[in-house]
Amino acid sequence: MTAWSNDRRDDPSPCRAQDQGRFEVTQRDGRARLGKLHTRHGVLETPALLPVVNPNIRTIEPREMWDRYGI
């Protein structure tokens, strides 16, 4: 399978009993999927932007963002 194949993928396998969540596919378009990630804390609809913070990288303060980029 290539990275750009439009072949239909099998649905993700169901979670095992000891797992704490499951992924539900609600729509498809080519290889893209919309879904819901069910966890014991609630439901997260995908796609979702989940920011990742690396403590080893210097962040930009909001004032600096405004001064540099106008946002």
Instruction: Give the SSE order as H and E letters.
Output: EEEH
Shape: elongated
Distance between the termini: 41 Å
Mean pLDDT: 79
* Radius of gyration of CA atoms, rounded to a whole number: 18 Å
Order of strands, widest sheet: 1-2-3
Concise structural overview:
With 71 residues, the protein is mostly beta strands. The protein contains one helix and three strands; from the N terminus they run E-E-E-H. A hairpin with a 2-residue loop joins strand 2 and strand 3.
Report on the architecture of this protein.
This protein is mostly beta strands and 71 residues long. It has a domain at 17-51. The protein is 11% helix and 31% strand. The chain has one helix and three strands; from the N terminus they run E-E-E-H. It has one helix at 62-69, and strands spanning 21-29, 32-39, 42-46. Strands 1-2-3 form a three-stranded antiparallel β-sheet, with no helix packed on it. The longest helix has 8 residues, at 62-69. It is elongated. The model has no long low-confidence stretch (mean pLDDT 79).
